[in-house]
Amino acid sequence: MPRLALVLFVAFFSSNSVFAQSNIPASPDDPVSLGTLWHDLGRDLRNLPSVENVLILGAGGGLSAWVHSEDAEITHQWSSSEELDEVFEPGGTLGSGWVQIGSAIGTYVIGRRIDSPRTALLGADLIRSQTINAVLTQGVKLAVRRQRPDGTSFSFPSGHTSTTFTTATVLQRHFGWKVGAPAYAVAAFVGGSRLQENRHYLSDVLFGAAIGIVSGRTATIGRGAATFSLSPLVAPGTVGVALTHRAHR
Q1: For 165-174, b where at least 16 C-beta lie within 10 A, e where not — what string?
Q2: What letter would DSSP give residue 120?
Q3: Could you list the residue range(s) of the whole structural domain that residue 9 is in?
Q4: In this predicted model, what pLDDT tens digit does every residue of 83-121 receive, in sequence order?
Q5: Handedness of CA 195, 197, 200, 201 (dihedral sign)
Q6: CA 31, CA 124: separation in Å to the nearest integer?
Q7: Are 8 and 99 in contact (CB under 8 A)?
Q8: What are the φ and ψ backbone dihedral angles of 167, each rounded to 5 degrees?
């Protein structure tokens, strides 16, 4: 079983164990109960196939294809830089499943313990989004089986990148760009660290980011005061994707 899937498996049963030992009720009427959390995960999976998600993944796939021919050279440049080695050293830890999924579960547990529905809801959204991300990321890894720059397996897409972009998207949807912007900066930093550590190619990182954004937005539909819509952009000599800000409804 791939590492991130194993982390999620252990984390899920750990969280169940924590609440099995507590006296916190898990009523269907409780919007942040464990029962509601996993019920909502089923709703998220039904919402996953959407036009916006397809456009995001299409944009990520298009960018990945565009840089594919330069993958080896870009990774070599980043990984051979001693200066970048010191700068990006924390990235591997920040983007690990233990940190990202552990933080999601920790946020949920703390919210339940201190009776803070808002904190628990954030944790629930993080848990569900990371579950979706794990399924998508590991599914693509197993299907593609791309060799990493260092010779090991399962390079495409980058799991460290996808999991941190998942977290960043959930934070942005809950708290807006004041929190979302630095969260995305951290996610981009983690993506850069995967190149520097010779573990991934740029195309792996770009598609991992797209998967993370899709996972985070799917679990947070209806959150926040505003949202963005994606639409195809076609003009003479130009093909792309337009990002449009709109009020939340």
Answers
A1: bbbbbbbbbb
A2: H
A3: 3-24+53-224
A4: 888 899 899 999 998 999 999 999 999 999 999 999 999
A5: positive
A6: 10
A7: no
A8: -60, -45
- Helix, strand, coil: what percent of the chain each, to 5? 70, 10, 25
Please state, in angstroms and rounded to a whole number, the distance separating the CA atoms of residues 157 and 164: 13
Coil, helix or strand at residue 214 = helix
Percent of the chain at pLDDT > 70 equals 78
We report the CATH number of the domain holding residue 131 as 1.20.144
Does some domain include residue 38? Answer: no
- The reported pTM is 0.81
- CA nearest to 123, candidates 159, 170, 187: 170
How many domains does one find in the chain?
Answer: 1
| 43 pLDDT more than 50 | yes
SS3 185: helix
Residue 159: name the closest of 145, 144, 141 by CA. Answer: 141
Residues 6+ apart with CB under 8 A from 155: 141, 146, 147, 148, 149, 199, 200, 201, 204
The answer as to whether 87 is a domain residue is yes
Indicate whether 47 belongs to any domain: no
Q: How far apart are CA 226 and CA 215, in angstroms?
A: 18
Asked, for residue 130, whether it belongs to a domain, the answer is yes
For the purposes of burial, counting CB atoms within 10 Å of the CB of 152, is it exposed (0-12), middle (13-18) or buried (19 or more)? Answer: exposed
pLDDT exceeds cutoff 80 at 6 = no
On whether the CB atoms of residues 202 and 75 are closer than 8 A, the answer is yes
Model confidence at 29, in pLDDT bands (50, 70, 90)? low
Strand residues in the chain grouped as ranges (E): 226-235, 238-247
Q: Looking at 28-70, list the stretches that DSSP marks H as alpha helix, in order from N- to C-terminal side.
A: 34-47, 51-67
